[in-house]
Amino acid sequence: MAKQDNMNSGKRAGGVGHIFAVIGKIVGTILLTAFLTALIFACLFAVYVKNDLSEQAQWASDSFSMEQTSVIYYEDPDTGKYEVLQAIYGGSNSTFVEYDDIPKNLINACIAIEDKRFEKHNGVDFLTTSKAGLSAILQKIGLTGFYGGATPGASTITQQVVRNITNDRAVDGAAGWARKLREIFRALNVEKYYTKPQIIETYLNLASFSQNCSGIQAAANVFFNKDVSELTLWECASIASITKNPTNYNPYTNPENLIHRRNFIMYNMWQQGIISEEDYRNGAAQPLVLAEEDTNKKTSSVTSYFTDALFTEVVRDIMDKEGVDESTAQSMLYTGGYTIEATVNPKMQTAMENLMRNEGDAYFPAGWHEEEVTSISDDDVQVMNADGTPKTRTGDDGTPLLRGFATVFIA
Questions:
Q1: Count of Cβ atoms closer than 10 Å to residue 92 Cβ
Q2: Between the CA of residue 96 and those of 83, 123, 332, 359, 398, what are the distances in Å?
Q3: Nearest-CA neighbor of 349 among 398, 390, 300, 405?
Q4: How far is CA 315 from the centre of its chain?
Q5: 154 burial class (0-12, 13-18, 19+ CB within 10 angstroms)?
Q6: Binning pLDDT at 50, 70 and 90, where does residue 403 land?
Q7: Rounded to the nearest 5°, which phi and psi values hold at 348?
Q8: pLDDT tens for residues 19-30?
């Protein structure tokens, strides 16, 4: 009887061992299959990186052109200083600023709020990227309690520069993940060839603001009527606030939102040891004082006879010097960042045009201004300098540049 029990126990033990052996084989097969699948995907990904992403990652600062505002200046006869007569731009108002001319407070404000590890990483902050990726996955499966239910930002300043230049902005599904991979590789590539100052300089000059502004110089002019180099701490924080959402933080339409974010940025600067507590509290106490919106401000609209003629002459000059057609020359004028020194005296020009537009036609026959002026007679008076020489500009070789209307320089 005891012998029979031992035999039965042996059979049961053998059966259990066989079951575990079968389970082990199944688990091993699954693991091996998963490993081989992962290996295949890794190989495919490596090929994709080598043949596709590596080419897409190539980027150079001279591979894009930034549209810049052309500006017409006139010499104020009372002060002798050159003042802005009119800005000419196509898509957006933008003027490039060199890194050395950008206030340190503005640079520090952007880094403090957008990418506090900017000086330490090599283009990609993998810690914040991992957090953002994990948060996105958790939200997909319904776990929205992490990070307050919102996906934390992961793009570094370098990645934002890449995005602004390439305009590669796919966000959903596989296209979004592929875009993110391209952006990572491009950012890593950028940091191989460009310094941190070059990258932050590009970022601040490409940043979009409300009021049709692009870049910090245009923003400083429009919002505070200042050159960017003259901005205070709280003004720098205000400009840094707008880039997150130009509509939501528009200083004119949503000033309270802007003040809250401005103060939050200065608080971060204090907490990160960039500014003192006193600087933070003084800045946060400042009211939002903006330049008045000038709805009559002249931009690209040609509204006077002089600027109309000047525009035509500058376009002709660009055509002659660059060897391009009229349409291309006009586009270059709107986006090429030209500095134009005009010979006009705005007060005299305005008085003269008002006289010529008199309603009663007391001085000029009716309809004279509706006829095209095709030539200038010898009896017309030329604008002269104080020494009696014609009011015209010449190039280095002594040849007239613009038939007496202006001198054109490349900004």
A1: 17
A2: 19, 23, 16, 44, 30
A3: 405
A4: 27
A5: buried
A6: very low
A7: -65, -40
A8: 777 787 787 788
